[in-house]
Amino acid sequence: MVTALTIAASGGVLAARLPSARYLALGLVVPTGFALDAVGGAGSAHVAEHVATRRGAAAVEAPPALAAFTRCHATVFTTEALPEQAADAFGALAAAVTDAPVQTQVLDQERTAVRHELEVTAAEPTWRIGAAVAALLAPETGLAAEHAATVANIGSLSPAQVDGVLRDGYRPDRAVLAVVGDLAPDELLALAADAGFPTDESTSDTSPAVRVPSPGEDPDLPEAFGVSFLLPGPATGPVPPWASAVLGGLVNPRGPVASAVNAPPLAHSVMKCRYGWLASVVWPGAARPVPVDPGNRQALVAAARKAHLSVHDGLLVPTQVRDALVAQAEGTEACLAARLRPEFDEAAADDLARRLISAPNWWRLRAGRAELLETTR
Amino acid sequence: MTACPAPPLVLPGGFLDHPDGLAATGALLVRLLSGARVLVAPHTVHVHGHQAAWSSANVDARLAASLLKAQASAAAAALGDPAERLVDGLERAAWGTGVRQLHWGDPAEASPDEISALVKAWAQHGTRTPVSDDVFVHRTAADLPWRAGVEVGPAPGARVLVGVAVPLRGEHAVAQAVAAAALLGTPHVGRIPAQLRHELGLCYGSMAVPLVRGRRVALVAGVSTTTRFVADCALRLAAEVRAALSPADPQRWLRQARLVRTVAASRVREGLPVDAFGRCFLEAPEVGDVPAAQDAADRPAWFAHGPVPDAFPDVAREAW
Q1: Beta carbons of A109 and B5 less than 8 Å apart
Q2: Closest Cα of chain B to A183: distance in Å?
Q3: I need a labelling partner for B66 at 20 to 30 A (CA). Which of A68, A369, B86, B289 fits?
Q4: Which of A175, A194, A213 finishes a domain?
Q5: In a shared domain, residues A23 and A109
Q6: Which residues of A touch B201 (CB under 8 A)?
């Protein structure tokens, strides 16, 4: 099945028509995140996200369910609406992007909510392994800052620090709005403009500021070892639309790397930041690096080709198209229009696979930090 | 076999219409034979890109064993999701058994012959397309008695799931459960997040859903919290659920529920997985009437999962 998509962009709005859509899917990307928290203000972007969510819900008569996620260089809000609920959905997102100062009571409540969230996730150590590895291998990406906010330090966050995040990032002219539905892109753009999102070229730069996080020790990290591969992200240059598929295949539990170690992996992931992608396979315990068989490269490229050519098939419902546009706006994926093009450069994909396989980063976790192991090159 | 893309294929019947423990296995078998994506929906199995003449398929013992193992893994993996665990735990607390137990069943119960017979039975039903929303609704269910009480289960980690299920009866029971669930909360907006999370700082995640099993109807609500807030969460949950049984503007909440249903149905229609929240709304028949306010038909069933404080059963009984 091939999804018939029409995509348009104007100002800070990305719109797509999906003819089978029975509801609207909306996403709002704000250029702030945990890697941009001020020094000493860890968690301020996360708390600002909670404050903005409340503002969005309070602004309209029948608030839609607003999901929100703070990431390293972007904060994302998503919602869905039946056609007759469209005004409330656009209104809630428009209200989320206001830079009014935060009230002390609201700050206290949301700090508590974030503390609970951290408490629950802190008990799941695999959640934090990626941040420790990023701190070692790719501190410039922002992925390492994910766990800078802790139960202990979130309480010291001041209203001024949260206000700073709201003032800098929560502006309609700095946000990107993604809208998907069974309406012509022009109609979707008009709805966005009516809600106050600029659709002309007057929008200011939506790129976030860059700050290099300072990784700390994490005493609760489990004993583990693993291998990671690095690629520059979309913000540092053009990314081939199939690069993500090559990386994903490389760390697949049935892929060439995982099969080289004779033990089931604890986890595998591709962490994405606009400044770099970090793909990892993690095993429990301690071990030495093992060689990765380059002979598997052909299968890896074939799988990437198949994945690239089936991108259309993965965009069946409005929320999936919306999420793809949001990833484009966040700068964590190649542009959706490029990903939908049928070309697949076999030679370039093979070259990328060769470069990645020949440059594995083997590491282990010890004493609360990741450390690089001798490589097999 | 055909090389042409086929329209969505709907196999009639689901885990309520087939022998215990076999529906999920059958779905896996269809996936294997057709090489297509497949989803075990509440009442239906959908296959996309159907390309194999699987109606004449025979299943050998080795394949059956592998499918049964896959079925058990899939069921266990699904319960790794806190929302699935909450719904499953409350259903078992309320009726002594859950849909998963009844209809995913014990893999050891199925034999290769049974699996083969199931696949042939499905094939003989033929197919129909397109998918209509009413195929998601359960038609039948055993009329198990309500079990008011408290169930506690251990789980590693710091997260505690605390939930309550309230039985509802009468002609408006489904509408009342659907409207109240929509009012109490999608995971991000509603009375429970507003009160327990934002106002009181007692929990992080939350969920409320209608639970409809044939003539049995319950309103289910729960939160994700940590040990020290379990008692307060139980007290506040009870208060919010009671208040939601008499909503001020029920039509508004029925509209909200319709959105949840539309989003979930859209995923099922395309053969994509649906989370526990959307699935429970799909499992309730679509309702248009304004529900009449009425109290719970019986005392509630409580469920807590994780590092639960010893005093929880007493606290829960006191709360409601």
Answers
A1: no
A2: 17
A3: B86
A4: A194
A5: yes
A6: 109, 112-113, 116
The answer to whether residue A116 sits within a structural domain is: yes
Q: Is B242 a member of any domain?
A: yes
B176 lies in some domain:
yes
Is the Cβ–Cβ distance between A240 and A311 less than 8 Å? no
Structure tokens at B223: 């939160």
Question: Which domain covers residue B18, as residue numbers?
Answer: 9-128
A366 close to B (CB below 8 A): no
- Supply the ipTM of this predicted assembly: 0.83
What CATH number does residue B173 fall under?
A: 3.30.830.10
Digitized pLDDT (tens) for each residue of chain A, 377 residues in all: 456 899 999 999 999 999 989 999 999 999 999 999 988 899 999 999 999 999 998 899 888 889 999 999 999 999 999 999 999 999 999 999 988 999 999 999 999 989 988 887 776 777 788 989 999 999 889 998 888 888 888 989 999 999 999 999 999 999 999 999 999 999 999 999 999 999 987 677 778 887 766 666 777 788 899 999 999 999 999 899 999 999 999 998 888 888 888 888 888 999 999 999 999 999 988 877 888 777 778 889 999 999 899 888 789 899 999 999 999 999 999 999 999 988 899 999 999 999 998 889 999 998 888 999 976 55
Q: Are residues B240 and B185 in the same domain?
A: yes
- Supply the CATH number for residue A72's domain: 3.30.830.10
Q: Work out whether strand B149-153 and strand B301-305 pair parallel, antiparallel, or are unpaired.
A: parallel
Answer whether A116 sits within 8 Å of B188, measured CB to CB: no
Six token digits for residue B90: 């409350």
* Chain A positions in Cβ-Cβ contact with residue B203 (cut-off 8 Å): 116
How far apart, in Å, are the Cα atoms of B51 and each of B47, B60, B70, B117?
A: 10, 21, 22, 20
Domain boundary among A139, A172, A194: A194
Residue B2 within a domain: no
- Which residues from chain B sit within 8 angstroms of residue A21, using beta carbons? 266
B215 in contact with chain A, both atoms CB, cutoff 8 A: no
A184 and A285 together in one domain: no
| Nearest residue on chain A to B224, alpha-carbon basis | A120
Q: Is A4 on the interface with B (CB under 8 A)?
A: no
How many structural domains comprise chain A? 2
Contact B259 A81 (CB under 8 A): yes
**Host domain of residue A183:** 6-194
Give the residue from B209, B229, B92 showing the smallest Cα distance to B159: B229
Whether residue A23 and residue B186 make contact (CB cut-off 8 A), yes or no, is: no
Q: How far off is chain B from A316, nearest CA to CA, in Å?
A: 6
Give the amino acid at A141: T
DSSP of B43-105: S-EEESS--S-GGG----HHHHHHHHHHHHHHHHHHTTSHHHHHHHHHHHHHHSS-HIIIII-
The reply to whether B292 falls in a domain is: yes
Chain-centre distance of CA B14, in angstroms? 13
Which of B128, B159, B188 is the last residue in one of the domains?
B128
Both B179 and B34 in one domain: the answer is no
Determine the residue of chain A that is closest to B267 in CA distance: A317
Cross-chain residue pair B259–A85, CB shorter than 8 Å: yes
Pair B122, B190 in one domain = no
Alpha-carbon distance B90 to nearest alpha carbon in chain A (angstroms): 21
Taking every pair of Cα atoms in chain A, the longest distance, rounded to a whole number of angstroms, is: 62
Residues B121 and B155 in one domain: no
* Structure tokens given for A314: 């993965």
